[in-house]
């Protein structure tokens, strides 16, 4: 499946309004695991990618170069369409155009751009401030002009709900849709009633961010679809689970208990070898053995 066909498939899925659930991927192992599971879409989480790649908080520290490097690696390893976080576009309007072209050429099926001030902060965390709506509208217009493939999805996120209220967030979402955004993302609604109001306010596909321990109530995907959402992302589920599993495993080692008791909870070593492509290496070695 080519990058163009993946984009077309994802666009058609969004248009059907049958909800797409997308797990957050953040490193090459998470990409390979998720890619085997038959999802319609994967989501490159900014929090998880910055944490795993730089060991830093998702607070505007990662550069365009850092992130497009990850986009290319993740998309190169996956057959599943990827939607990729691009923060604020990494600068002004020229930067946004450069970012869109770079993410598209790296193989992404869609890009998420938000209306926060620089340096941005992770959603569901305090201290987020937004730029003027008119400035974000310009970014969306530039993004749509910069893409080469019309099926490359432009996802416009607003963080206005937390600091300026839901009505302002809805007003911005409407403006971003009119500017050409394919998908609207109102970050951090704080009740089922707010989710319902968002779902009734737009004709374009909507994204909902499901963060364990975050500001937004967790609802089953079927309920989110009923409310009007086309894409539910689960950015933190993977890295939170991995971090707790590592903490447990390393704790057993530190306590001098060894790891035998953990084997039933782990992926078998042979399965990990298969996941990472070792059978092809072994076949190559047999074919070229002297």
UniProtKB/TrEMBL annotation:
CDD domains under this entry? ICL_PEPM
InterPro entries listed in its UniProt record:
ICL/PEPM, Pyrv/PenolPyrv_kinase-like_dom, Pyrv_kinase-like_dom_sf
The region annotated as signal peptide is none
Gene3D superfamilies reported for this sequence: Phosphoenolpyruvate-binding domains
Question: Could you tell me the superkingdom of the organism this chain comes from?
Answer: Bacteria
Instruction: Kindly list the GO molecular function terms attached to this UniProt entry.
Output: oxo-acid-lyase activity
> What protein does this entry describe?
Carboxyvinyl-carboxyphosphonate phosphorylmutase
